[in-house]
Please model this.
Amino acid sequence: MRAATYSVPAAPGDPEPGEVAVFYFGPNEGGGVQANIDRWIGQMKQPDGSPSADRAKIEKLQGSVAVTTVDLLGTYMASSGPMMQVSAEKPSFRLVGAIAEGPNGAVFFKFTGPEKTVAAHVGAFLDMVKSVTRE
Model:
């Protein structure tokens, strides 16, 4: 289901690199756009305890295919393992997710990393997502 994973170089002063994960589940698979946006929002916790949904920036882009993005700062609840248990809490992280709705199913892109690292590379990430075309 994970089609690719890319490491993104850490910005100066950040403790670790970022990661871009790309997922494709097939036609009519992987859940709807809003369900995935909600899941990604749920992977972030706010230091003051406020709901992450209140701070998420959601945007719809139109190119060759419809793309919905979510952008959120907070503590990333990194998960791993077969049941996707939280394996680490990573404060001062940023998650930028994008769902490109292609004719053969959605492609999911998730960019996570320390705030400065994501800020330094988010333009290139969004350019990549906007370049998705119908084929």
